[in-house]
UniProtKB/TrEMBL annotation:
Alphabetical list of InterPro entries matching this protein: At1g03370/At5g50170-like, C2_dom, C2_domain_sf
Residues in C2 domain copies: 1-102
SMART domains: C2
Protein name listed in UniProt: C2 domain-containing protein
Amino acid sequence: MKLYVRVIEARNLPAMDLNGLSDPYVRLQLGRHRFRTKVVKKSLNPTWAEEFSFKVEDLKEELIVSVLDEDKYFSDDFLGQLKIPVSRVFDADNGSLGNTWYALQPKNKKSKKEC
């Protein structure tokens, strides 16, 4: 089975750079497979419009979508993530979740940072 993921855009991302903006990109992971979008420079409301294809080996897996801010000299800053069970997509009536906005969550429950 194949899972097609379209990363369209984000809005109201937190500013992580000294200039009051961010250089965001999206990292997608399903099992061992990883992809990432291009970096959108100096934006809190980036548009990517990129599509990715994953081979699904286990319906119990989760698609992990992470949004990060690219840093040139330090490690990239984590902005937030979401986890979508693959079974939720294949259980949907038409096999699609459609175009939907998702709120980003912190990496762990102890984090106080709101995304």
